[in-house]
Structure prediction request, 221 residues.
Amino acid sequence: MARKVPVFLEPGDRRVVVFGGGPVAYRKCRQFEGFDITVVAEHAVPGMEGVCSRIILESFDPSDVPGYLNGAFIAVAATSSKELNASIVRSAKSAGVLVNSAHGGGNVLLPSTVRRGEYTVCVSSEGSVPAFPPYVAEKIDGFLGPEYDAMLSLLKTIREGLPSRIPEQPRRAEFLAAVLADEPIWDSLRDGDADGALAAARRIETRYRRRRSANPLAQSR
Prediction:
């Protein structure tokens, strides 16, 4: 089986149809928060209305599913019935709609996620062992201290106007890699010394700018 391709989707007016109204369906809705979410279920747990656009409270069987999929971008089979979820998966694939299923068999997987202020880390076993991703995500969550957020902020700062200071893209990449590999900078960030970390990064940048100016032939290429 081909490996899954990890992607990040921007929320918006794309329609996500979630079949099921229990705790699993609620968790799936929260993972798609920001999309245009329609829930189809006989009953819905409290709080569901706060994370979706509309709730259709009615019983349904496999023959009803195609009608709910009109205009859907992604379908989510999150009922308590393995057989019904399998039917939803088949209908979605037949309609050309991407589908995630609580019982497997879909072509969309929702990873375990660690979110920070400005970056996100996702873990997936690609459906093989569902217990594995949340375990790894918990370990990662404990590992990523505030210095990683501080480093990202530092990199964003030093990238402003960087092409004008170091025109060659490969050299810019080397410079940023050098900043990331600099342990004294990490130590400054761990100590909360953002100004000291920025000053150290600027000193590293100066070396890369000097290397550029020392080779005028490279600049003319």
Notes: The chain has ten helices and seven strands. The first strand starts at residue 15 and ends at 19.
